[in-house]
From TrEMBL:
Residues 37-229 form the YgjP-like metallopeptidase domain. This is Metal-dependent hydrolase. The keyword Hydrolase applies. GO terms for molecular function: hydrolase activity.
Amino acid sequence: MSQTTRKHTTTLAGEEVTYEVSRSDDATQPRIDAGIDGITVVLPASLDEDPETVLMENAGWVLEKKTKFDQYRADIPDRTFEAGERFPYLGEDHELIIEPRQKSEVVDQTIRLRQSAVDQSSVERALRNFYRREAREYLSKRLDQFAGGMELDYDGVQIRNQRTRWGSCSTNGTISLNWRLLMAPPEVIDYVVVHELAHLREPNHTDAFWSLVAEYIPGYETHEDWLEENSTRLVFSADDL
């Protein structure tokens, strides 16, 4: 489990940086997560360390990421959540259609939402629920397939609304994956799945870890770069930020 505190502000090399602090039971050492939603300092729950010290020690990296993601924010889709709008599904844009039907599903390059689901909440909520349902089914299948090939056992999967990470692997073997991954291309999704499964064997990003990832996802660097360069395409709504 993790708990995030309110936003803080500090100054790095003369530049003001806003960040959050998260304490995690799964973290074994301090780390900094940087994304289009901002900077988060993740600290082990049992470690008494000043988050500003962690930021100062990595000031160059933090400022580089901040500049990049500030630029990315300008490219965030301005979604209106109306019929006819296009949303990515497994890397390809699909037209949103709202109609009377028994189940929301993908049909011939369209996402067809059940009218009653929209009437009971909103287009945005109905579409979010659709993505989460589809993500659970799709990601679970990919996890099972790769876990079998890698001869690894994981202890369940959680489809989460993570703000700064695409996936994580807890110390007890539970894999958590971000439902927004369903908007990414299949090969990118497979990279994230294998990345998290590899942590079951190699907890840290050692050479052995990356060799294991490369064994099952040759050229994984391409997919890693795609995620970094196309994060804005996977922003669902302003609530993500």
